[in-house]
Design a protein that fits this description.
The complex is a heterotrimer. Chain A is α+β, with helices and mostly antiparallel strands. Chain A folds into 2 domains: about 70 residues, Roll (Ubiquitin-like (UB roll)), CATH 3.10.20; about 120 residues, 2-Layer Sandwich (Alpha-Beta Plaits). Chain A is about 20% helix and about 15% strand. In chain A, a hairpin with a 5-residue loop joins strand 6 and strand 7. The longest helix of chain A is centred in the middle third of the chain and has 17 residues. The radius of gyration of chain A is 19 Å and the shape is globular. Chain B folds into 4 domains: about 60 residues, no CATH class; about 90 residues, 3-Layer(aba) Sandwich (Glutaredoxin); about 210 residues, NADH-ubiquinone oxidoreductase 51kDa subunit (Rossmann fold), CATH 3.40.50; about 80 residues, Ubiquitin-like (UB roll) (Roll). Chain B has 24 helices and 16 strands. In chain B, the strands form 4 sheets. In chain B, strands 5-11-10-14-12-13 form a 6-stranded mixed beta sheet. The mean pLDDT of chain B is about 95. Chain C is α/β, with parallel strands linked by helices. Chain C contains 6 helices and 7 strands; from the N terminus they run E-H-H-E-E-E-H-E-H-H-E-E-H. The longest helix of chain C is centred in the middle third of the chain and has 13 residues. Chain C is elongated and about 60 Å long. Classes of the chains: A alpha+beta, B alpha/beta, C alpha/beta. At the B-C interface, helix 24 of B face helix 3, helix 5 and strand 6 of C.
Chain lengths: ~240, ~600, ~180
């Protein structure tokens, strides 16, 4: 029998199961903690830091922190929202995010978070880095302009597809996602049905010839903010 | 028959038992032999180790001393840290450029590569450089020319070392021109301990009692974080698992720190003794000394000390005759990454991976190296352990202060007459240290390296201890001619270079922070910029995943706190809502040069 | 009492945002009861006649002329609004930002491999003194002057523009609902 653990999020009592992270317990309780690199089915990564919460006053990633009896978690406070907004802004200015023609627009998790946070303009100077596009593969293309280094493709290719097509190379601001080949994606065992391709939250990994099929207004985040699916499951008070 | 590269590389892999966790040793050996780890080599290594090629590429591309593109037979790495610059490294750099005929980042036709590298732990004898593994100190333009001329006759840098430094720098296995510069030896660490004395007393107690002694002594980590050592060892001792590890963090990458270098040179026995005591206390049979790549010149010497200890029964099976206590130590070389001084990144590196810090929890005491309970401690901490066990906790606690017992090794450099290593009691005032090292006209001191704080005259009465001015040892002294904002910018450059890039706030935030700081330095600051720096710095500090990120904004945040007027005097009110940092002249530079005409509207 | 004035311009923009403004359709009749237009392509007034209440800027700054116009707008407009993704982030023109300017000129006027064939027999890059000099990169407006509000979109929906204008003209906060915050 699973041990239950009681703790609070913004003063609200939450009961979770031993072994769950704060994020998992919050999800079950219908409390949305924003995230990008955390994805169900993949190992936790803790890279994006969007899910930063305060645990007993100290910052922690909700996705990596296991729940402990009696812990006090702060999630929806001005201070934390300001930090999360800064992180989302950083991700926008770090790459080249041209939403107006991006095939992922409307279904993009980074964009959806920005919408949810009411971001109208980047809070930091845009960096306009020189990033490349790899369209060598017959069915999949990589647009590194949009990559947010969340590692979902790396983990999914390793853990779900058992292939290891993607890996991180470089360090610091030069870090990027590379492929398991000398030159390009076409040389790897990547396949259009790979879970790794679906895993990308933004428009960095896309299937060719599938763009713009869903009209504006009917895309995933056009009408409902990201996270509303989790919040809907909250037990009404 | 000469060996093909393929055979040679497979041999290197197999001599490491095709063990993926030995990746660092494998790629270092390939780099050494071939001047790079080429694309073909990556495929071969991946094949032998049964991993993906991109994982190998991930490791090569992470560490500064590894490369996929060929480097010359000789690589000159000139240290460009702030102390080096203060002592003239720019002139030395110009001389190297002229003598070699290439720019930094390039390789000559006759196989000499010229590069910059951050702090190599030689700040007291700067300007300094690494030529392959050989350290060159007190460089000048003349010596740069001489080095290049000599290399062109014989590409063996070791042959260029004609006189050796003091102490064990003269040892046949070191043969280095590096000096110890021990200016003040205290009673605890830079003092004599009979070989085996600490270990003998430790083994006469139970492991629990050893830890109790460390708790009684209130020993705290000497690397900078200051975690209570007894507590850390107790957690590790109590953690589940048969196999446990003791690791010594000899990565010493914090700029301005070089005291561990001196300890490894002169007190290696004390360090290894402390590690063995640690093994006994936590129940580990294996110790790993993670030695930064820049200190490779000490490796053979350290291996010989280990061999000597083995022959004396101080390492190996039944250590010191204690039945059932087996303990041995191996040396793991790093390859140029400051982040590997962070304990979980150090562990990642030892596991043959990119030096990425790990998610915590779980902490290394519970799940560390290879998933086993591990304690990672600083070089100096192990020395303290040995002495505490040798003499007694009470003896140790007589030095220093209540909350910071014992002594601290300081590595002092910068604008002072007597840079070098000083062993002082905790609780000593900064002003007294300034007098001790012959500092004059001191305007500011960086306490604890770039991840610490820059303090001004108002703080000189404060004390060196964990609760006040804490430092892992680095103390950099700046006179009134040095600009605090430029110092901060230089430190930001360091963090940007060394960030592992895993998490957003550190990877991106620090670049943004430095950009705004540099705009202010360039006279383009405006009212509102300081709030921007504070808010951004706080986000970086709060949301970063590891100690590097959490302290990376400190150069800006601490100067804003302690030297705010230096910022304020550079700010102006923007005229008519124009942004001062928009530089129309800079923006027009390319077009004016391409078209050959000047802007009519926006003249200079 | 004179009605507050509105000025508009398109810098390095496609005028799509202006078209979107006109998409307020018959609400324009209400708008002209509330405001007069000053410098704007809509009424073809080419110079500011004086200070205006609200300035709407479409497009980022790709040339020195854009910068001069934008600086003028900042000078004359009490409230300055960046309209659309180009003004806010540089937009499609900013795709050239990671490419050196000389390569951009060469590609546009000399190479022309990818676009329609360029008739440039002398292989000269146009350089008439009347042509404004291009900036090293395309700048979002708020990186050149202080901007008071941003209305994102490509273009921002007419409702967004309408809501924002009405709010500002009636001294209310500009508060866009979720459905109207769009970057495409």
């Amino acid at each position: 029998m699973s041990e239950t653990i009681n703790f609070t999020i913004d003063g609200v009592e939450v009961t979770g199961q031993a072994g769950q992270s704060i994020m998992q317990a919050a999800d079950d309780a219908g409390i949305y903690i924003p995230r990008l690199c955390a994805m169900e089915g993949l190992s936790v990564f803790g890279a994006c830091r969007v899910c930063t919460v305060l645990v007993n006053g100290r910052p922690q990633a909700a996705c990596t922190q296991p729940i402990i009896e009696g812990m006090t978690v702060e999630n929806d406070t001005d201070e934390i929202m300001a930090i999360r907004r800064d992180i989302i802004d950083m991700l926008f200015v770090e790459g080249n995010h041209f939403c107006m023609f991006c095939e992922k627009s409307g279904n993009c998790e980074l964009q959806a978070l920005a919408y949810r946070f009411g971001i109208l303009a980047p809070g930091f100077p845009l960096q306009f880095p020189d990033r490349d596009v790899d369209a060598s593969h017959a069915d999949i293309f990589i647009d590194r302009n949009r990559c947010i280094l969340c590692g979902r493709c790396v983990r999914a290719s390793q853990e779900l597809d058992g292939k290891g097509v993607f890996g991180f190379v470089g360090r610091g601001a030069d870090k990027k996602v590379a492929v398991n080949a000398e030159a390009c994606l076409a040389q790897t065992s990547a396949d259009v049905i790979d879970k790794a391709v679906e895993a990308c939250p933004v428009g960095a990994l896309l299937v060719k010839r599938t763009a713009y099929r869903v009209p504006i207004g009917q895309r995933k985040y056009d009408r409902r903010p990201i996270g509303s699916n989790i919040e809907q499951t909250a037990t009404p008070e | 028959m000469t060996e093909t590269p393929e055979t040679a590389i497979k041999k290197i892999c197999r001599s490491n038992k095709n063990d993926r966790s030995r990746m660092m040793d494998i790629v270092r050996a390939v780099q050494e032999q071939f001047g790079c780890v080429s694309s073909e080599a990556m495929d071969l290594i991946a094949g032998e180790l049964s991993i993906t090629r991109v994982e190998v590429e991930g490791v090569i591309s992470f560490y500064a001393f590894l490369s996929s593109k060929p480097k010359g037979k000789v690589v000159i790495r000139l240290c460009n840290d702030i102390i080096g610059e203060m002592k003239g490294s720019k002139r030395v750099g110009d001389a190297f450029r002229q003598a070699l005929g290439v720019d930094f980042g390039e390789t000559t036709d006759d196989g000499i590569t010229l590069e910059y590298t951050p702090c190599i732990g030689m700040c007291d004898q700067a300007p300094a450089a690494l030529v392959n593994d050989v350290v060159f100190t007190y460089l000048s333009s003349d010596s740069a020319w001489r080095i290049v001329r000599a290399l062109r006759e014989d590409m063996d840098p070791q042959k260029l070392v004609h006189s050796f430094g003091d102490g064990n720098n003269e040892d046949g296995l070191v043969c280095s021109m590096v000096h110890n510069d021990i200016r003040q030896a205290g009673e605890v660490v830079l003092s004599e301990m009979p070989c085996g004395a600490g270990l003998d007393r430790a083994l006469a107690m139970s492991p629990k009692e050893v830890i109790r002694d460390l708790n009684t002594a209130r020993l705290r980590g000497r690397g900078g974080a200051g975690f209570p050592t007894g507590l850390k060892w107790n957690f590790t001792r109590q953690a589940d698992g048969e196999q446990k590890y003791v690791m010594c963090n000899a990565d010493e990458g914090e700029p301005g720190t070089f005291k561990d270098r001196v300890l490894l040179t002169e007190k290696a026995n004390m360090v290894f003794e402390g590690m063995a005591i640690g093994g006994y206390a936590i129940g580990a049979d294996t110790g790993v000394l993670y030695l930064r790549g820049e200190y490779a010149y000490l490796r053979s010497f350290l291996e010989s000390i280990l061999a000597e200890r083995r022959s004396k029964g101080l390492l190996g099976t039944n250590v010191c005759g204690k039945e059932g206590f087996n303990f041995d130590i191996r040396i793991q070389m790093g390859a140029g990454a400051y982040i590997c001084g962070e304990e979980t990144a150090l562990i990642s590196s030892c596991e043959g991976m990119r030096g990425d810090p790990k998610n915590r929890p779980p902490f290394p005491a519970v799940k560390g190296y290879m998933g086993c309970p591990t304690t990672v401690n600083n070089v100096e901490t192990f020395c303290c352990v040995a002495r505490i066990l040798e003499k007694s906790p009470g003896w140790f606690a007589q030095f220093g202060s209540r909350n910071s017992p014992g002594t601290k090794l300081l590595s002092i450099s910068g604008d002072c007459a007597k840079p070098g290593v000083y062993e002082v009691e905790f609780g000593v005032k900064l002003i007294d240290i300034l007098m001790l090292c012959g500092a004059e006209d001191t305007a500011s001191v960086q306490v604890g390296g770039p991840s610490g704080q820059l303090v001004g005259k108002d703080d000189f009465q404060r004390t060196i201890c964990y609760d006040d001015l804490a430092t892992g040892g680095s103390l950099m002294i700046f006179n009134s001619k040095r600009s605090p904002l430029k110092i901060a910018s230089k430190f930001m450059e360091f963090f940007i270079e060394e960030s592992c890039g895993y998490c957003t706030p550190c990877r991106v935030g620090n670049v943004l922070l430095k950009q705004r700081l540099d705009a202010i330095i360039a006279g383009k600051g405006q009212v509102g910029d300081l709030e921007y720096l504070e808010r951004l710095g706080t986000s970086i500090k709060t949301a970063s995943r590891c100690g590097l990120g959490q302290t990376s904004a400190n150069p800006v945040l601490s100067t804003l706190k302690n030297m705010r007027p230096a910022y304020e005097e550079l700010l102006s009110e923007p005229e008519n809502g124009q942004l001062r940092r928009f530089d129309i002249r800079a923006a027009l530079g390319q077009a004016e040069s391409i078209t050959g005409r000047q802007s009519v509207h926006y003249k200079e | 009492m004179a009605k507050p004035k509105v000025a508009t311009t398109s810098l390095a923009g496609c005028f799509g945002c202006h078209m979107s403004l006109l998409d307020i359709d018959d609400r324009i009749l209400k708008l002209i009861e509330l405001v007069d237009f000053d410098k704007s392509p809509i009424d073809d007034i080419k110079k500011f006649t004086g200070p205006v209440e609200i300035g709407l800027v479409e497009g980022g700054c790709c040339s020195e002329e854009n910068v001069a116009v934008l600086q003028d707008f900042r000078k004359y407009c009490k409230i300055l609004i960046s309209v659309g993704d180009c003004a806010i982030g540089g937009g499609i023109p900013a795709m050239r930002n990671s490419i050196p300017l000389s390569e951009c000129y060469e590609e546009a006027f000399l190479n022309g491999r990818r676009g329609p064939e360029i008739h440039n027999p002398e292989g000269v890059v146009p350089n008439d003194p009347e042509l404004p000099l291009l900036l090293d990169k395309v700048y979002p407006c708020h990186e050149v002057v202080k901007i008071d509000y941003h209305l994102p979109g490509c273009p921002p929906p007419a409702d967004t523009l309408w809501n924002a204008l009405v709010a500002l003209l009636t001294d209310k906060p500009v508060d866009l609902p979720y459905e109207l915050i769009k970057y495409d």
